[in-house]
Structures are given as structure tokens and as C-alpha cells.
Amino acid sequence: MVDQSGGQKLIISERKGFTFFQFEQLLLPRLDHLVTNRFFPFDLTQLEGKNKLAEILNTDEIIFPRQVHGSNLRLVDRASLSWGRGANFFADGLLTAEKRLYLGILVADCFPLLFFDPEKQALSVVHAGWRGIWQGIHLKTLGKMQLFFGSTPSSLIVGIGPGIGKCCFEVRQEVKEYFEQVPARANYIFPVSQNQWKVDLPGILVRELVEAGVRRGQIEIFPACTSCHTQTFYSFRKEGPKAKRFALVAALQ
Asked: How many domains does the chain have?
């Protein structure tokens, strides 16, 4: 069990000799999920790596989108498997009510989000980079879950996986001004120098999800910064283009 600041935890689990993380609040009979890390020795940006992960999960039914750092969300079902594993469609979030259909997203500093509705039996996995957060992909996910499944925010359990923390996410004025377009977000921007600021992305995620009706006690956040903990996670900002990706995958059971 990994216990970080604030009492937040990710549970360490093992499958077929590989170590993964899981959200404590999302260890539920009707949901399977895991977060990979850099000890998984296969490149998940390649089809071979995705196939190996599917083998470990004992499934042929796994979908990865082609992520574009936006806020587009796609409802998927088994017919969507014909698109291939991320070969033919673009999205930064997937939603489904299909059982045993695994959804996956890849990250390296961006935040992997998992939304689960135990009442309606529906889930969403989301790739939330700074552009997606600025565009409100987390709030759009709430709207899509209500539209497609009848979910209410108060019924959801949300996992916010490892991403870049406010300690390391430095931006220049252009990005700062993007976030300042929503006045309340200014509380999560901190000056570093005359031309640089730090932005607390997980702080924005939590505040806006709670304001939208998600219960704070049903949001689990893993506070370890990916840029600070490259011994465990990949970080594009720290490692540059050579950085690989880790994954969040989940399926209804």
C-alpha cells in the first residue's frame, strides 16, 4: 500500500508477475481497473505493448483512443472494437456502460481520470492534460455521463491518477492567461518569476468537480508528482520526447 500526503492511497497489486496500482475507493466488485508504471517493460504507445496489457487483463476487448490533448469524449461499445486499439479515432476520453469492455488512456504528466457510477453501472476514463483541463474535459465528462447514462455527480466515485504537480508545472504568460479566463482558477496560479507561473492542476480538478456536485469524499487523488517521481512514472516534462507512457485501464464487471 502506498500512502502519500493527505492520507491518499493507491493500492499495489500484482498480476502475472507485474506490479500495478489501484485506487482504494474503486476496489469494487463491479469494477476492474489498474494504473501501470515504468516497471511495466512494454511500450504502451505501440500495439505490442497494448496487446501485452490486454493479455495480462485476460481480454481481447480493450480500446485506446488516439489522444490529441483536447476535450473530445466518445461513447463506445463492443462495436467500437472494430476501430482497432487506437488506430482509427481521436478522443481524450471514453465512456461506456458495456460490461467487460476495457477502456484505456495513456499519460506522462497529464492526469488519468476514472469516473465510475455504481448506481447506473457506467464509467469513463479521461486523459486530462492542461489543455483538456482548461477546456473543462472533467466537467464535460460529468455532462456526458448524465446525458448517456442518467448519472448524477453526487453518485460518482472519481479517481485522479498521478500527474504533474503544482511543484513542477511551470508556464509562461500565454498559458496563465488561458486559465485566468475562469476567475476562480486564479487562486491556483502562483508566480515564480516575472515571466513564469506555476499552476495547480489537481487543485483545479478537485475544486471544479466538487462545485459541480461530486462529493469531496468520493474523489481519490494520488498526490505524487510524476515529474518528481520519475523512478515510478514517466514524465514528458522531465524526460522530454524519450518519455514513454503509463496507462489507466478500467472495465465494468
From this structure: 1
Burial class from Cβ neighbours inside 10 Å (0-12, 13-18, 19+) for residue 71 reads buried
Beta-carbon contacts of residue 125 (< 8 Å; ≥ 6 apart): 93, 94, 103, 104, 105, 112, 113, 114, 115, 248, 249, 250
Q: Are 164 and 227 in contact (CB under 8 A)?
A: yes
Q: Is the pTM of this model over 0.85?
A: yes
For residues 167 and 197, the answer to whether their CB atoms sit within 8 Å is no
How do strand 157-160 and strand 219-221 relate by DSSP bridges?
Answer: parallel
pLDDT tens for residues 65-93? 999 998 999 999 998 888 777 657 899 99
- Alpha carbons 209 and 50: distance in angstroms, whole number: 30
Domain that holds residue 224: 2-252
Which residues lie below 8 Å from residue 88, measured CB to CB, with a gap of 6+? 66
Burial profile 88-122: b = 16 or more Cβ within 10 angstroms, e = fewer: ebebbbbbbbbeebbbbbbbbbbbbbbbbbeebbb
CATH, residue 34: 3.60.140.10
Tens-place pLDDT, residues 191-240: 999 899 999 999 999 999 999 999 999 999 987 899 999 999 999 999 98
Q: Please tell me the distance from the alpha carbon of residue 199 to that of residue 168, in angstroms, as a whole number.
A: 9
The amino acid sitting at 246 is: F
20 class by beta-carbon count within 10 Å (0-12 exposed, 13-18 middle, 19+ buried): buried
Sheet holding 246-252, edge to edge: 2-3, 9-15, 18-23, 31-35, 246-252, 102-107, 62-63
